[in-house]
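Students often ask why inverse folding is considered easier than folding. One informal answer: many sequences map to the same fold, so there is more than one right answer. In these notes we will look at a single instance of the problem. The structure comes first.
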């Protein structure tokens, strides 16, 4: 029998939030990954940042060691080894800057250090050019098993190293031999003017991550000055921030005109949607274990008519046609199955910290398969994901709006952290809630956190889409997602994950074909950016860190053939547990799949595209993999429940689920608020 998967770190006591207490040992790193922490007897411990006294003057030095204010990885320069002094505001810490370098720009972040070209590199047409990116680690030779390298140009991936080098264009190359000595430089062969623009190098050396950016300007000596002026758009560096905002405004106005024309056109036409699901897969039958109501039988849920569709069928274009009234049963399934997906992916810490999807599937088989699993205490508790999702849902269920709602959310998040014994909350969630001041003016906002890129906001936000499911609710959905998300994860990669989870749930209610969800998410990002800028809560830091989330989603949609919303999704020929473990890592920011705000909903979306109407296949893809499986499972199961209800789900998977009654009550209240207590 193969060895079981132990938790990556042993159970620890629940976190306490007394103001004068240091919580040095109760939390793992990132969203549950263990890192060295300061201990009570480690008197010489110094965190990886410097505290600045309140009267320290501001300088312009903050960005001089960065090639781009828009790169997420650069912000990891300010991350401590552990949140040992978590009571302080993150805004009080800055990085130690190296003296100015004459040739190479040096960026230091703990063990990982990177040297790169100056921010602008020039070349002539036809030349071979090497974009330098040299890294060092101070714990010995480079361990290639911990290394992930990705180069992008204008949002498109050029090359990647993940155990081996893969080039996506014939004119680019990366030396695998060089990587062993810390050389991640990109070679471009016979460059042309189309090679001009911004290049980004993402270097992940677990658990650290950095991004460097360089702009290449390719000049063509054969062109006249008139030609140069006419062709300047291809050779100049990227436009500045104000130019980008101006272009975004123009695009928004054009989209509004297009939407008006589309609505006018649709008023005189009738469209028929297409079914986005994959072919139905058979649910394996199985008897239930003793002590678990219903065992392996499937159920229609809480009184729904299985012969009727749970949601109105999509009959028009993406956001133009309001959804038909869904059943209350669909809302109950969304809340209850999200908790079941969380508990299954968590397995009382065991499977969340297992890095092998095949091993998890082997253990499941030894238990008799999914149909034999009774998700009930004490063996199958929900994790912090569901406790915080319930906090969000119950705050929304009060019917409050605006700042009173934000204060309610903050209060319930603080209260929820008292229910974390054995649930493994992430340090960013713990830190964020410790900084909230419910009841005080603006007490629901915390400082920008350059390391808050985790999935803690995404995993608790599906119910926002249940509360605001209508196309006309989009602005409110964006506001609530952003504000609730950055109550703990004040970084775009973190709180945009909350927006993605909420949008996907709303799309499920609307009956929007799955193939459209990713592209519709990207179309919503300008609206979110506008809100963040107008909200004036450290907007400069937020805008500077915006790009990664969007770029990674653009890349994913290209990988799946969904960039233009046309289906079906394109999957690799072999896509079993082992293959998914490897591919999910390519979605990730730091090598732990599903840990971050962008890839937790991404893996959930991938699983939904793959599973069709099969609960077992959904669990295999979203809950039983070698990454942050409870966080991806809680999102995927919520959306799946809206589309399919409890049909095909073994009763043992949800009937005795912890907090099930609270989930049903919250679902009923959200349904009444969203649909005006209309009859099903």
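Output (designed amino acids):
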């Amino acid at each position: 029998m193969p060895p079981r998967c132990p938790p990556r770190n042993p159970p620890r006591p629940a976190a306490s939030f007394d103001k004068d207490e240091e919580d040095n040992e109760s939390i793992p790193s990132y969203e549950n990954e263990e890192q060295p922490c300061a201990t009570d007897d480690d008197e010489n411990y110094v965190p990886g940042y410097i505290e600045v006294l309140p009267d320290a003057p501001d300088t312009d030095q903050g960005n001089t060691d960065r090639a781009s204010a828009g790169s997420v990885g650069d912000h990891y320069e300010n991350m401590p080894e552990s949140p040992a002094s978590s009571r302080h505001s993150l805004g009080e810490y800055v990085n130690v800057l190296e003296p100015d370098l004459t040739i190479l720009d040096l960026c230091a972040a703990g063990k990982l250090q990177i040297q790169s070209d100056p921010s602008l590199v020039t070349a002539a047409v036809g030349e071979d050019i090497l974009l330098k990116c040299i890294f060092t680690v101070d714990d010995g030779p480079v361990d290639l098993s911990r290394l992930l390298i990705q180069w992008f140009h204008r949002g498109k991936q050029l090359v990647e190293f993940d155990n081996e080098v893969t080039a996506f264009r014939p004119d680019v190359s990366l030396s695998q031999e060089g990587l062993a000595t810390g050389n991640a430089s990109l070679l471009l062969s016979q460059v042309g003017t189309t090679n001009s623009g911004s290049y980004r190098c993402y270097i992940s050396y677990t658990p650290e991550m950095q991004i460097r950016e360089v702009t290449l300007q390719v000049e063509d000596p054969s062109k006249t000055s008139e030609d140069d002026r006419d062709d300047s758009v291809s050779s100049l560096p990227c436009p500045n921030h104000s130019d980008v905002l101006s272009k975004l405004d123009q695009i928004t106005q054009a989209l509004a005109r297009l939407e008006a024309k589309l609505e006018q056109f649709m008023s005189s036409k009738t469209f028929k949607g297409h079914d986005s699901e994959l072919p139905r897969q058979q649910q394996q039958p199985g008897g239930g274990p003793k002590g678990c109501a219903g065992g392996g039988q499937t159920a229609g849920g809480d009184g729904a008519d299985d012969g009727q569709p749970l949601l109105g069928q999509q009959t028009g274009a993406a956001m133009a046609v309001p959804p038909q009234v869904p059943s209350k049963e669909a809302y109950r399934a969304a809340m209850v199955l999200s908790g079941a997906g969380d508990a299954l992916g968590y397995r009382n810490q065991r499977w969340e910290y297992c890095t092998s999807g095949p091993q998890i599937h082997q253990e499941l088989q030894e238990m008799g398969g999914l149909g034999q699993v009774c998700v009930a205490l004490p063996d199958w508790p929900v994790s912090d994901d569901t406790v915080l999702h319930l906090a969000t849902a119950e705050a929304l269920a009060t019917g409050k709006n605006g700042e009173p709602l934000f204060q309610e959310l903050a209060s319930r998040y603080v209260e929820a952290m008292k229910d974390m014994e054995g649930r493994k909350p992430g340090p960013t969630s713990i830190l964020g809630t410790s900084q909230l001041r419910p009841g005080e003016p603006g007490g629901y906002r915390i400082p920008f956190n350059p390391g808050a890129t985790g999935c803690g906001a995404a995993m608790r936000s599906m119910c926002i889409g249940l509360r605001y499911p209508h196309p006309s609710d989009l602005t409110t959905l964006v506001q609530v997602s952003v504000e609730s998300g950055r109550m703990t994860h004040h970084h775009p990669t973190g709180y945009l994950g909350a927006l993605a989870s909420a949008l996907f749930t709303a799309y499920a209610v609307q009956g929007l074909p799955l193939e459209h969800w990713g592209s519709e998410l990207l179309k919503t990002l300008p609206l979110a950016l506008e809100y963040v800028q107008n909200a004036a809560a450290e907007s400069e830091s937020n805008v500077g860190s915006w790009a990664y989330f969007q770029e990674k989603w653009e890349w994913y949609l290209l990988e799946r053939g969904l960039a233009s919303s046309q289906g079906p999704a394109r999957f690799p020929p072999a896509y079993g547990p082992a293959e998914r473990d490897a591919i999910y890592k390519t979605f990730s920011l730091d090598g732990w799949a599903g840990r971050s705000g962008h890839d937790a909903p991404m893996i959930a979306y991938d699983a939904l595209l793959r599973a069709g109407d099969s609960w077992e296949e959904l669990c295999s893809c979203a809950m039983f993999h070698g990454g942050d499986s409870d966080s991806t499972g809680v999102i995927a199961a919520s959306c799946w429940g809206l589309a399919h209800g409890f049909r095909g789900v073994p009763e043992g998977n949800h009937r005795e689920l912890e907090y099930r009654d609270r989930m049903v009550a919250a679902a009923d209240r959200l349904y009444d608020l969203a649909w005006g207590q209309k009859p099903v």
